[in-house]
Amino acid sequence: MTRLPPWLQATALQSSAQFREGRLPHALILLGQRGLGKAAFADWLARLVLCRAPEPEGACGTCKSCLLLAADSHPDYYPVAVPADKTMISVEQIRSLISELQESAHQSGWRVASISDLHAMNTNAFNALLKTLEEPGSNTLILMQATQLSRIPATIRSRCQLLKFSPPPLETARDWLQQETGADPESLARLLTATEGAPLAAADWLAAGKDQQLAEFETQLQALEAGAVSPLALAADWKEQTEDVVHWLSLQVSRTIRRQMTEGHEEAGAVPLPRLFALSEQLLEARRLLQRRANANPQSLLESLLIPWPSKIVKSAGNRQ
């Protein structure tokens, strides 16, 4: 059986009960930020539904169907994802999926489609998917992962059940990460802050060595705010990590905004809220530009953010969980 992290187990047991009782929706949108386990849950549920001898905790792992899935060769499982050299799921991919779902199940059981990054589809792809959601056929499950509900048409949302994934309690996330990685508490706290409480994202960052990069980033940003380093020099140093840097800068600004709004006042010399909101919008646009893989010059983009960067952001953010 596939082992799910602790914060997903209650949702998994609920879905397992729905399946046993014949109440499982034909289409589920798994909504939440990256790093919470949506892909792991989709994989777990697909295995459960396709298993010949499912248990309350998940698929048996030993039947013919489970072995086919383990070998990535199950004829009734249809994964759809953004191609490695593209930024969107194409209408041709969705049409191919629809054609497959119109066929009878090869194993005389269920058919499962699993779409990653549902929000990464254009209007034509959504329209093609809509017909299948309206008439999915018997014993068909369509799992769709998304991080941005606003980019999914209402016509799609209305034909699916929404399953929201939220960051687990901080203690749960830390305990799981400590058990999985053995990292020190300070590193885990820093990574969970940087990933907005997403344990799987924090584990990936740790494996990629981003904990040390994050510590260096905070030190360099403090130096920038103190006037001890040039924004042009920092932009040149950070250009190979532009996406991570823009993400980290966004977190600093978001935490500063939350702290000021929670405390209900601005400290003497603090960055005014209107300026923080404008900076937040500028960073959001930068993230959108990078996600679209537009022809943006990374160093120039960072320069546009760092040259006007205000002082006291790092101090105001507090850098605390």
Structural class: alpha/beta
The CATH class of the largest domain is Alpha Beta
Largest sheet: 5 strands, parallel
In CATH, what is the homologous superfamily of the largest domain?
Answer: P-loop containing nucleotide triphosphate hydrolases
Distance between the termini: 34 Å
Description:
This protein is an alpha/beta fold. The protein has two domains: 159 residues, 3-Layer(aba) Sandwich (Rossmann fold), CATH 3.40.50.300; 109 residues, Zinc Finger, Delta Prime, domain 3. The protein contains 15 helices and five strands. It has a five-stranded parallel sheet with strand order 2-3-4-1-5, with helices on both faces. Strand 3, helix 5 and strand 4 form a beta-alpha-beta unit. The radius of gyration is 22 Å and the shape is elongated. The mean pLDDT is 90.
Write the topology of this structure:
Elements: H1 6-20, E1 27-31, H2 38-50, H3 64-70, E2 77-80, H4 91-101, E3 111-115, H5 123-134, E4 140-146, H6 154-157, E5 161-164, H7 170-181, H8 185-194, H9 199-207, H10 210-225, H11 231-238, H12 242-263, H13 273-291, H14 298-306, H15 313-317
Parallel strand pairs: 1-4, 1-5, 2-3, 3-4
Helix pairs in contact: 1-2, 4-5, 7-8, 7-9, 8-9, 8-10, 11-14, 12-13
